[in-house]
Amino acid sequence: MPIRIAIVGYGKIAVDQHVPAIQGNSEYQLVAAVSPRPPQVPPPVPVYESVGAMLQAMPGGVDAIAVCTPPSARHPIVAEALAAGLHVLIEKPPAATLGEVEDMVRRAHAANRTLYAAWHAQHNDGVDDARDRLAGKTVTRFRIEWFEDVRKWHPGQDWIFAPGGFGVFDPGINALSISTSILPMPLFIRQAKLLVPANRQQPIAVSLDFGDNLSADFDFRERPDEHWVIEVDTADGEQLRLSEGGTRLAVNGAEVKVSGIGEYPSIYQHFAKLVAANQVEVDVDPLRIVADAFMAGSHQTTDAFDF
Amino acid sequence: MPIRIAIVGYGKIAVDQHVPAIQGNSEYQLVAAVSPRPPQVPPPVPVYESVGAMLQAMPGGVDAIAVCTPPSARHPIVAEALAAGLHVLIEKPPAATLGEVEDMVRRAHAANRTLYAAWHAQHNDGVDDARDRLAGKTVTRFRIEWFEDVRKWHPGQDWIFAPGGFGVFDPGINALSISTSILPMPLFIRQAKLLVPANRQQPIAVSLDFGDNLSADFDFRERPDEHWVIEVDTADGEQLRLSEGGTRLAVNGAEVKVSGIGEYPSIYQHFAKLVAANQVEVDVDPLRIVADAFMAGSHQTTDAFDF
Q1: CATH number, span B122-256+291-302
Q2: CB–CB of A106 and B201 under 8 A?
Q3: Cα A6 to Cα A10, A19, A36, A270, distances in angstroms
Q4: Looking at CA atoms only, how far is residue A62 from chain B in angstroms?
């Protein structure tokens, strides 16, 4: 019996990634979509305005939902779905606050249902290999550079600079999710600098200092050299370089052949295993680092930004 | 055998509260103080410049430390003390970031030593009684008003408005620590507004919305009516009012006689029990709420502030 799954929040990420990953995995059957407004791309399944309307129309017909709404809308959706006995997969970042995430976890345990906070970047092909290579080693230098042009990747998406929108942490948290997953030691902020455009609420560029030669820079501003790179040097003289967001891995300058089934297929493969065991898997570390940066960091004003 | 304890960070709170609480409890012996600069009020025990210098001068002579430094200085001190086999009590808030707190907890478990994050406001005389009265009840309204004049209570303390200084969350987190301790349900932020003076980094006034008729206002600005009040209404028609920071409790308008030994004596009584069992007790909920407010809240600029 496949897992009958509905997608809640039928936007770009649902269409581009979730639908093909679900349709490409025989453990799932896509049965519905939930969207308060008619989706721009019509889904191949019935659309309901809310989770409640779907549950009423399809009693006993849905086993799980994948939540692809903006983070700040997720908590009530997840609470309702878990209370109705559904398993839940949530896109990254899991919610707008750590408190909401903790409450979701409590509810999942109380309902004895799966809650899986999927960090898609952790499922890139180079990540498992990097983690294996770093296990038990001493890191002597660690560096993230996550430079992407917000106009190119998020054209006109004003919400990303509104409260709860995360600003440049929206892509940056992907790098953090890889880092907390591969590093053999905990990662926590010592100092942070957040550059916030004069006309916005959320940072357009961030520098994070984790102490001990560990640092990260995220930048949303236009530049000639977009890149998404994580470098790790270890005490035994090895240098790992994850590039293109974690899809490529080089060791001491030489490309390593990595293989995998791709980010979203891997996410859904893992979710099926969790569902079979009613397991909860929620990694809050990346979101905790972001919250710490907001709390302890220095907030500086920079040039106004318009799309 | 009393617990031989040293105070690290010998400022106002150490002199006013920790020394008398330690000296008034026969389970403890105050044996040293640590201060990088000569303390303004000379302690009744030898002073060392660092924990390391103290450990070298008094090998095997110290069982525990009480850390009263500013939050951002604590992590390395706590790490060093735990590694040396000492038990650790830390003032509120436990650190500048959630990541540092988590790492301290890991280290305490690894060292099999007590780490106690003391929230002094939780030890006020009215708090236990309020918690007992609220157990198992449904809260229909919850309101914090924490209005104190920063010029009166923190004269000239510029650090409080610097990154990591917490601004009005410095007193406000005391209210949150009482709230998370007495409420029968979890508390997490839905919306937050942070007013930051144009010439400062940290908020001078904060509004927190926890949804469902639960809210808090913290204000550091001068006003005629300073007060520190928490009100809780329950579905059975009872209203609790904790006032004067939690020292007084009224139920349905009638003052309830509360008793206790006072904040800091109660903290040290509890710490002795934890030390006897090598237990770790770290409540991160108040700090998590503050981090969430910084991350998901709306940051607004208000009038410049000078002491």
Answers
A1: 3.30.360.10
A2: no
A3: 10, 10, 14, 17
A4: 29
What are the tens digits of pLDDT across the range A85-109? 999 999 999 999 999 999 999 999 9
Nearest by CB to residue A291, choosing from B72, B188, B295, is B295
Domain ranges of chain B: 3-117, 122-256+291-302
Burial class (CB in 10 A: 0-12, 13-18, 19+), B51: buried
Q: Which CATH number fits domain B3-117: 3.40.190.10, 3.40.50.2000, 3.20.20.70, 3.40.50.720?
A: 3.40.50.720
Cα–Cα distance for residue pair B140/B228, rounded to 1 Å: 20
CB pair distance less than 8 Å for A298 and B102 = no
Rg (CA), chain B: 20
Q: Length of chain B in residues, anyone? A: 307
Could you read off the pLDDT of A221-235 as tens digits, one per residue?
998 889 999 999 999
pLDDT over 90 at B232, yes or no: yes
SS3 label, residue A228: strand
The three-class DSSP label of residue B45 is coil
Quick check: A179 and A230 in contact, CB under 8 A? yes
Nearest to A99 among B196, B288, B297 (CB): B288
Q: Which residues of A are catalytic?
A: 92
Angstrom distance (rounded) from CA B195 to CA B193: 7
Q: Which residues of A touch B95 (CB under 8 A)?
A: none
Matching fold, domains A3-117 and A124-258+291-302: no
The topology (CATH level 3) of A124-258+291-302 is: Dihydrodipicolinate Reductase; domain 2 (3.30.360)
Contact check, Cβ <8 Å, A294/B295: yes
Quote the mean pLDDT of chain B: 96
Per CB-CB distance under 8 Å, the chain A contacts of B163 are 296-299
Question: Each residue of B250-279: b (16+ CB within 10 Å) or e?
Answer: eeeeeeeebeeebbbbbbbebbbebbeeee
Strands lying side by side in the sheet with B191-197: B254-256, B248-251, B239-243, B227-234, B139-147, B214-219, B205-209, B191-197, B298-302
**Residue of A74, A98, A109 to mutate for B, most B C-beta atoms under 10 A:** A98
Chain A residue with Cα closest to B95: A296
**Chain B neighbors of A97, CB-CB under 8 A:** 188-189, 292, 295-296
Bridge partner list, A302: A197
Run of H or E including A233: strand A227-234
List chain B residues with CB under 8 Å of A99.
Answer: 186-189, 288-289, 292
